[in-house]
Amino acid sequence: MTVEIRTLSGNTTTVDDSVLEQLGSGGVGGVLTARSSEYDEARKIWNGMIDRRPAVIVRCRTTEEVARAVRFARDHDLLVAVRGGGHNIAGNAVCEGGLMIDLSLMRGVQVDGAERKVRVEPGCTLAEVDAATQEEGLATPLGINSTTGIAGLTLGGGFGWLSRRNGLTIDNLIGAEIVTAAGETLRLSETENPDLFWAIRGGGGNFGVVTAFELRLHPVGPEVLSGLIVHPLEGASEVLGFYRQFAPTLPDETAVWVVLRKAPPLPFLPPEWHGREVVVLAAFHAGDQSEGERILEPLRRVGNPIADVIGPHTYTGWQQAFDPLLTPGARNYWKSHDFLTLEAGFMEKLIEQTGRLPSPQCEIFLGQLGGQINRVPVDATAYPHRDAEYVMNVHARWDSPEDDLQCIEWAREVFADAAPYATGGVYVNFMPADESGRVGSAYGANMRRLVSLKDRYDPRNLFRLNQNIAPNVGVGGTSEPVTPVAG
Questions:
Q1: How far apart are CA 27 and CA 61, in angstroms?
Q2: Model confidence over 457-481: pLDDT tens digits?
Q3: How far apart are CA 235 and CA 172, in angstroms?
């Protein structure tokens, strides 16, 4: 029998089952087609809106297996998708009719407590990394949803509760291993292939398949001061007015984020508030807890909160606090902006739009950046938005396809309302599939160098299922040497 697979040109090519069997005989974790019993489960990803059917799924367990799959795709000119955690909003982990390289079986985490570093394979989730590093009382800045995959998060930049103190995830990346479009395996660091190391720190999956990340660790926990303060939407003007003045005064160890949504049925909220619009302040302090209590005390005195559950929590528990609101399978659509300041008019627009939530699961969140993130030069990594103090993600989320139009339109309206107050920049990991036109905004002044590196490392654009940095636009490549992995 044969399988038809989509090519880079948009046509299809026919591959015999015997050829796929030969690919699988190289030791890969499995080669799946639509006839395989595991196929439907393997093609599922976090965003329930994405329902694509790859012709072939290659499940890899080692870097050499990844290299073998990449060479197979290159030799047959195949359309390629690369799946890490499968959490990306745009659904780039899975392709229609092409070859999907599945890294989800690569789950190794090796912690070196003495050197304060960790080696992580690309199939890991943030929960797996946190669990392993916290055994040594250490952590690295990651995201706020523990089911997120480490690979996509890191390649796009990565930020979370520790980022004001310790920088982005990429600011803590000290080494990596990558399979390039040529099928070569390279080690990356500040001294080994530094140009490509620069590119993967924010440049997404444009330059190859990263098969290992080496990250710097920092003392954290096991307990941190954290928790939620929940206010009725009716008090939002007072609360957010205070937040605008309060947030810029916070030290690097402290971060307070804002979430506007309908109250979920949390056990600490009175039942009469479930399903009603609320403003949630999510607070975190990574230093001394008594000092954190002092810092957050003014925030806790504002307004008339429905609930205040700030207190000592395990770091791993806090990292999973938002997981119940972000479970896989729902339909999701995001829109995002960066901000230097939070102007009063902008906050009032958010309050107004929270009164028009089209689904109980929809929300608007404001993440607080700044601190150490902003002390890194713009050109030090591919991620360029070192001046941003806040990021907004309009998170439309719902269950039925019948609600697609109203939920997506709501997200776009909030985005449009916020645009006059925003920087024009955008975090690449928050871009949905229909925002390819914003790639230049994602990379700003670093775009020219990224195109040059794309010309050099992937001139045929094998790795195009991403927020794509297209090659061959008249920008020359670099002349720095490539250092392959020995053996």
A1: 8
A2: 999 999 999 999 999 853 333 333 4
A3: 39
